[in-house]
Amino acid sequence: MSEIIIKPKKALSLDDVKEVWRFKELLYFFVWRDIKVRYKQTVIGIGWAVFQPFMTMVVFSVFFGKLIQVPSDGIPYPIFVYTGLLFWQLFASALADTSNSLIGNASIVTKVYFPRILLPLADTCNKFVDFFFASLALIYLMFHYNYSPGLSGLALVPILLIITSATAVGAGLILASINVKYRDVRYILPFFMQLLLFLTPVIYPSSIAGKYAWLLSFNPMTGVIKAARAGLLGTAPIGWYSLGISAVTATALLIAGVFFFKKTERYFADIV
Fold first, then answer.
1. In the 8-state DSSP scheme, what is residue 210?
2. Total domains, the chain
3. Per-residue pLDDT of the chain (272 residues; tens, 9 = 90+)
4. Closest listed residue to residue 10, CA positions, set 147, 199, 148, 177
5. Helix/strand/coil for 197
6. One-character DSSP codes across 81-124
7. 258 in a domain, yes or no?
């Protein structure tokens, strides 16, 4: 009787990509399972995907738009902040779930072999469902404030989703690998995300930073949010330079995340 020993490789290769493709049905199962579990026995169900960013927009509009009167580049503040929140929520929720994907599925990781990277990928993929329903509220706001996106703006959305996902997956793979050994990540990440929200032009325009606005460009979500507002609301030219920086940074982060994940994958099942 032969015995097969599977040892994870430290470096990424074409075989890893082929293996992920062979397990694509399992990826679909993970995505569908997470969606069903999240909204099981809820009254509103998928409506929570709309309720959370919409109510956040209302709170920000009252405090930052009305009371503090944060500038919004001539755009009505509710639709200004909701456009930013739509992509920020996708990034933040994907990063949070991805960083905990191995810990949350410890019983599977320790018993069955499959490409472990499927778990972080599934946690990111199921966020697109939330994004779709949350975008319905943006469509309503666009009709309400008489904004209509051009074809270039609509064609830009898939690019923005790819950059946002690459950023979340890249950072999430690193955090998920660290989280297996050091559980401090679950406590540090929420605090870090709160700080990062204020370092991203979600509730304010990047122009408010004045001569230091270029520093915000190193945050991949800055170019995404600026391009989303420019493309969907059509109030300014799309900042391709800023978006290009975001794309390069997201790509570098994704590559670093994959290599770090592969390097540390060999001890996941032992200590998770």
1. G
2. 1
3. 555 555 555 555 666 778 888 888 888 888 888 888 877 777 677 788 888 889 999 999 999 988 888 888 889 999 999 999 999 999 999 999 999 988 888 888 888 888 889 999 999 998 998 999 999 999 999 999 998 887 888 899 999 999 999 999 999 999 999 998 888 888 899 899 999 998 899 999 888 877 777 778 888 999 999 999 999 988 788 888 889 999 999 999 999 999 999 888 887 777 76
4. 177
5. helix
6. HHHHHHHHHHHHHHHHHHHTHHHHTHHHHTTS-S-TTHHHHHHH
7. yes
Dihedral sign (CA 107, 113, 99, 164): negative
For residue 1, give the amino acid letter: M
Q: What number of CA atoms fall less than 13 Å from residue 10's CA on the CB side?
A: 0
Domain span holding position 264 = 43-271
Residue pair 268/109 in contact (Cβ under 8 Å)? The answer is yes
Rounded Cα gap, residues 133 and 138, in angstroms: 9
CA distances from 171 to 58, 62, 144, 210, 255 (A): 29, 32, 36, 28, 10
Q: What own/partner pairs with CB < 8 Å and gap ≥ 24 does 157-163 have?
A: 157/228, 157/231, 157/232, 159/243, 159/247, 160/87, 160/224, 160/227, 160/228, 160/231, 161/90, 161/128, 161/131, 163/220, 163/223, 163/224, 163/243, 163/246, 163/247, 163/250
Q: What is the pTM of this model?
A: 0.89
Whether residue 190 lies inside any domain: the answer is yes
For residues 81 and 65, give the distance between their C-alpha atoms in angstroms, rounded to a whole number: 9
Q: For residue 144, what are the CA distances in angstroms to 39, 64, 130, 131?
A: 29, 20, 22, 20
Residue 33 falls within a domain, yes or no?
A: no
**Token pair of 229 as six digits:** 């507002």
CA distances from 87 to 34, 117, 150 (A): 20, 23, 19
